[in-house]
Amino acid sequence: MGLxxxxxxxxxxxxxxxxxxxxxxxxxxxxLSQNGRGIMASGFLTGLSSAVYILAMALAIKYRALIxxxxxxxxxxxxxxxxxxxxADTIFRAMRGEAGFWWENYKRAWKRNFRACVAPGLxxxxxxxxxxxxxxQGNSEDTGVVIAVAMLVVVALCTAxxxxxxxxxxxxDLPLVRILLNSLVLCGKFPLKTLGTAIFEYxxxxxxxxLVPVSxxxxxxxxxxxxMLVTMLYLYTPxxxxxxxxxxxxxxxxxxxxxxxxEDPAER
Length: 268
Prior knowledge:
mainly alpha
């Protein structure tokens, strides 16, 4: 089997029909081979929109000025969230094979989701900004092991809740309070998948920050789309089990179609 095996070629409307690859790694490379440009472009837009948040937090940490965090973090979250949800929507469509002209779909999804992203963007920007300041303060002073572990657990929990929230914003139309409650329930209902994806995302961003400036080239290429794609490959099944997305495709509360399942096509 060569690099360009039947699982990776025959793309487009005129190509021959191919089976969905089995397994997460196979689907990962299949998605990149088919829709890589759209996924990466949406991630690039998200990366650009994160500049406000990064600048505000860099100033807050450098000068230990809480005012930069209190103003810049919510503003940065507000700017970032619509693009982050747009990246999630683009990947959902790619998983379904309906990415098409990604820019047209991206614009429609952005307009549809913008209002729903305002409150989560402000809230998450403030929460993560406060946590970054606390972690920085903890590193500069004598911090007990219990307090340090508690801080890391809180950060991991907030990361997990934020991930579930972003995915829900991309696929369902629900009030923010309901979405946050759903995120807490999903964390408890699927602890292993939640913990695994939270650790992965946490480790990804720690490596990016710790290895600056060497990591800047990887941050420019992988930015937000890579951790989003990896975690979505693992968290779609819990989402579908919880919300019945496939069964509710025709209903108004579903925004985006789901991707195909991971089962072997021979069993269908």
